[in-house]
Amino acid sequence: MKKLLFVYNSHSGKGLIKNKLMEIIDIFTRNGYMVTAYPTQHAMDGYDRVCEADGLYDMIVCSGGDGTLNEVISAMMTHINERPVLGYIPAGSTNDFASTLGIPKNMIKAAAKISDGKVMSYDIGVMNGRYFNYVAAFGLFTDVSYKTPQNVKNVLGHQAYVFESLKSLSNIKSYYLTIHCNEIEMKGSYIYGMISNSRSVGGVKDICGKDVELDDGLFEVTLVKEPVSPLELQQIVAGLLSKNQKSPMVERFKTDRIVIESDKAVEWTVDGENGDAHQRVEISVVDKAIDIMV
């Protein structure tokens, strides 16, 4: 019988997993898995448990928010033996990862997908030795997307993401950066930067671009320059909101490696969690690192 480790955060998404747990386990069991269920007890507990599971399971299923998922995938990346297939049951509030992969928000439907869906490969990022699933970012819009109510984002989409940030433009903070990427060096002042492998960030779809491929060995880079005039501010808004997403104030390109340097430490977020402050950040892609059921 195949073995499945089910790691879940019982507190994510208002604890909804508690009412669905037995039905989810039953779905896995009926599909030929011997299930070991493990509720995480504290931060990094899921990471430790999955690290210990190296070579012991045919599949690892995670249920929780972006933080729990990051722990599980980061731990899988340490495995010496062949990595098992990953399954994901979203339970957080934003669920960008699930949205990008088309994983149902309904927990029971997500469990069924894991049992009878298809396997797809997914690229993983590394920032200064730390793995991330879909986004590493700094600057103005970084935490706004996670603070904006989801019902507002559902109505306004891109606009909620940008306009919530515009409330604080009088206190806008810029960073003078040197960027090495694709054998090119760029220097300038930027108010926001995002390196991503997702079709949704902060619950906002298409903010990363229109032609995102999740297994091409490339991440999408979005850099927003510092505005010095009302016209440039309008160009930023147009670049982030317009369908063609072209603007002289918003730089977009793809890469498998980027180095960003600054004279002062810059605060980063990784998959919506604190990524610490860094003067130098090196980000690279691990091509087709994870196989996941969708």
Structural features, described:
With 294 residues, the protein is of the alpha+beta class. 28% of the residues lie in helices and 39% in strands. It folds into two domains: 2-117, 3-Layer(aba) Sandwich (Rossmann fold), CATH 3.40.50.10330; 130-287, Tumour Suppressor Smad4 (Sandwich). It has nine helices and 15 strands. The strands form three sheets. Strands 5, 6, 7, 8, 9, 12, 13, 14 and 15 form a nine-stranded antiparallel β-sheet that branches. A four-stranded parallel β-sheet has the order 2-1-3-4, sandwiched between helices. A two-stranded antiparallel ribbon has the order 10-11. Helix 1 (17-30) runs parallel beside helix 5 (107-116) and helix 2 (45-52) packs parallel to helix 3. It is elongated, with a radius of gyration of 20 Å.
Summarize this entry quickly:
The chain contains nine helices and 15 strands.
